[in-house]
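Listing S7. Sequence submitted for prediction.
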Amino acid sequence: MSSHIVASPRRGVTSAADRQRDTRLRELDALLLTDDAVCRQSDADPDDWFPIVERANPAKYKAAYEAAKKRCSGCPFTGLVGPCIERARLLPYDPIGVIAGTDPKLRRKLCIGANLQDRNGVAA
C-alpha cells in the first residue's frame, strides 16, 4: 500500500497536497512578481498596501484601507478569482494589508487564508 506522505530532503514529512501547493505558489510568484502587477511597478511603495492606522479612529482606518484597495483596481491580477487572491488562499491568513483589493476583514469573512479554509466544513 503506497502512502501519499513522503519524507522531504530536510527530513520533514510532506504530503502530495503540500507539494502541489508549493509548486502552485512558485508558479504564482513567477507570474505576480513582475512589473505587470500594480504593486510591483517601480513607482509603487509597498507601504501603500499596508496602511498603518490605529483602529481607534474608524473613519481614518476605513479611508486608509479604501485608498489601498483602490490602488489594486486596474491590476490584471486582482479580483476574487485572480492569481493574487489565489496565492492568498494558499498562504496563512494575513491580518494586515490589502491583497487583490481585499482588506483583512473581507479576507477573514471569505476565509481567504490556508489556516482559515475548511473552517466549519466551508472552504474558501
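Caption to Listing S7: primary sequence and predicted C-alpha cells for the chain studied. Residues 5-109 form one domain. The first strand starts at residue 5 and ends at 7.
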